[in-house]
Amino acid sequence: MAEKMLKFVGLKGETPLKSKVSERVKNFFEIYKNYIEPKAKEQSSRCSQCGVPYCQIHCPLSNNIPDWLKLTAEGRLEEAYELSSATNNMPEVCGRICPQDRLCEGNCVIERAGHGTVTIGSIEKFITDHAFENGWIKPFKVKKNLNQSIGIIGAGPAGLAAAEQLRKLGYQIIVYDRYDRPGGLLIYGIPNFKLEKHIVERRTKLLEDSGIKFAQNFEVGKKNTLQDLKEKHDAILIATGVYKAREVEIKGSTLKNIFPAMEFLTASNKKGLGDKVKLFDDGTLNAEGKNIVVIGGGDTAMDCVRTAIRQNAKSVKCLYRRDKKNMPGSAREVSNAEEEGVDFNWLTNPKEFIGEKGIVKQVILHKMRLGETDATGRQRPEIVSGSEKKIDADIVIKALGFDPEDIPNLFSEPKLDVSKWGTIKTDLKTMKTNIEGVFAAGDIVRGASLVVWAIRDGRDAATSIDEYLKNKKFLAERKKLVA
Ligand SMILES: Cc1cc2nc3c(=O)[nH]c(=O)nc-3n(C[C@H](O)[C@H](O)[C@H](O)COP(=O)(O)OP(=O)(O)OC[C@H]3O[C@@H](n4cnc5c(N)ncnc54)[C@H](O)[C@@H]3O)c2cc1C
Ligand code: SF4
Q: What's the mean pLDDT when you consider all of the chain?
């Protein structure tokens, strides 16, 4: 082992090449290239194979990172893929979009020791892309088909991970989704420059070819109630994500051309997929030639500003009420946005939108400063009096986060228990809701989170649903025997 591994002292960490800024702002392609095989092997060999792998502990999926790095360094790539996919249903997605600086890589022991992290995410992406390219990934075969069925509401990463795990066990699965394509935010939220859509489509096709059925354009609540679905299936998983955009409640907020982030991003993603989008095609949701103002400092805000840059906006400003150090989004994405020419206005908040003929034209801003620490441990932003200034805005995009929709009401199931924030309450160990046979996973339970956590939840829910259905079958058979 020693010959192949522990090369971190003499060998520098290298991420895959990034496209030049001048080129990448003209298109929506992913900005990071893939490793070539020798580079992936070389970079894997930097791992120190430490006894207590902090990278694994800080990966929500507990991926066996040191072992698949070692297999990669040794050129045993098919085995590396088998191991990496044993704990992760979408390693090629996580490798691309996990905020590794906060998870595995941020806790890598050699990073902590000042040698620079092993580039875990890029290697994970390489292993799975390489496996697809070499035909090692095939639709899975189910050993024994079972006659119990599960209805999964939501085809995002939580729903898809659960669907895969349960189908592998032989259950009949239907995934219902209100969108026309499976993938959830992987398709309609996250832009191509972070995750190209053919990567998601390759994954969802594999699931379809493995016998999972998809009912698209099927909005639960409109077409069916939760009770209707319960009558069709032996168990239900709710994995509907969170979509209610938080509002900016200031004067002028009802003016035209002020949009929630998802409306702007979905239009752009649909165009990328070749769809006709009326509001984009007539210019309403197209940033070209316009002054764009994005309010917010998370990943969604970064995706909006970078999309606007690629649509050739005249100017792109990001307003965030705290400073750069306190931005909630991934540091990597903030730095990519800075490189691409986004004008960041730290410690700034909108005070009022000014319009002409009902359409937004300007934003009045306040300067902010960081004051006392609040109950969450963060410094509270305070307005600096007399600091107002005006900026031009043809489109304003609200990217202040998402809340859950009113699921009990939408699903005509008023008894479904939700938290004070509207997220579905579950037993944390079993992911069961308070309604018999109904489970929940992903953002609709956690609130807006990460893809890797949604996958983890989907897998945990699948384990729990399997136990529940086995028990249900056993009890039904015993009842028959007794009768
Ligand atoms: C713009 C943006 C960028 C992001 N970037 C990142 C990133 O870089 N890295 C990262 O890790 N995370 C990122 N996230 C977060 C991540 O996308 C989510 O945490 C993750 O997708 C949650 O998965 P989910 O399966 O719970 O829900 P979702 O992905 O939201 O999927 C839910 C699905 O349920 C469907 N649905 C909802 N209601 C109904 C209904 N009534 N009937 C039928 N179907 C319904 C929806 O159509 C959707 O397909 C980002 C989020 C956004 C908004
Ligand atoms: S799933 Fe995410 S956190 Fe886990 S190893 Fe991969 S990139 Fe790191």
A: 95
Of 90, 107, 116, the residue nearest 14 (C-alpha): 116
Residue nearest to atom 44 of ligand 1 (CA): 177
Q: Ligand 1 mean position to 2 CA, how many Å?
A: 42
Express each pLDDT in 436-465 by its tens digit. 999 999 999 999 999 999 999 999 999 999
What CATH architecture applies to the domain 149-242+404-482? 3-Layer(bba) Sandwich (3.50)
Q: If you write DSSP's letter for every residue of 10-56 in order, what string do you get?
A: TS---PPPB--HHHHTTS-S-SBPPPPHHHHHHHHTT----SS-HHH
Contact in structure between 73 and 1 (CB atoms under 8 Å): no
Give the residue, by CA position, lying nearest to ligand 2 atom 8. Answer: 104
Cβ of 449 below 6 Å from ligand 1:
yes
The rounded distance, in Å, linking the Cα atoms of 204 and 189 is 16
Q: 137 φ, ψ to 5°?
A: -100, 115
What is the architecture of the domain spanning 21-133?
Answer: Orthogonal Bundle (1.10)
Amino acid 206: pLDDT: 98
Query: Hey, where are the domains in the chain?
Result: 21-133, 149-242+404-482, 249-401
Q: Is 387 exposed, middle or buried (0-12, 13-18, 19+ CB in 10 A)?
A: middle
Residue 386: which region, alpha, beta or left (left: phi > 0; alpha: psi -120 to 50)? left
CA 69 to ligand 2 center in whole angstroms: 13
Q: Which atom of ligand 2 is nearest to the CA of 61?
A: 4
Mutation to probe ligand 1, out of 225, 246, 451 (largest number of atoms < 8 A from CB):
451
Evaluate: CB of 88 within 6 angstroms of ligand 2. Answer: yes
98: Cβ below 6 Å to ligand 2? Answer: yes
Phi, psi angles (nearest 5°) of residue 465: -65, -40
Would the pLDDT of 1 be above 70?
no
**Proximal ligand: closest to the CA of 182:** 1
In angstroms, the CA 280 to CA 302 distance is: 20
| Topology (CATH level 3) of domain 249-401 | FAD/NAD(P)-binding domain (3.50.50)
Query: Pocket of ligand 1, candidates 240, 403, 456: which has the most ligand atoms within 8 Å of its Cβ, to mutate?
Result: 240
CB of 265 shorter than 6 A to ligand 1: yes
Q: Is 454 in the pocket of ligand 1 (CB under 6 A)?
A: yes
Tens digits of residue pLDDT in 416-429: 999 999 999 999 99
Can 149-242+404-482 and 249-401 be said to share one CATH topology? yes
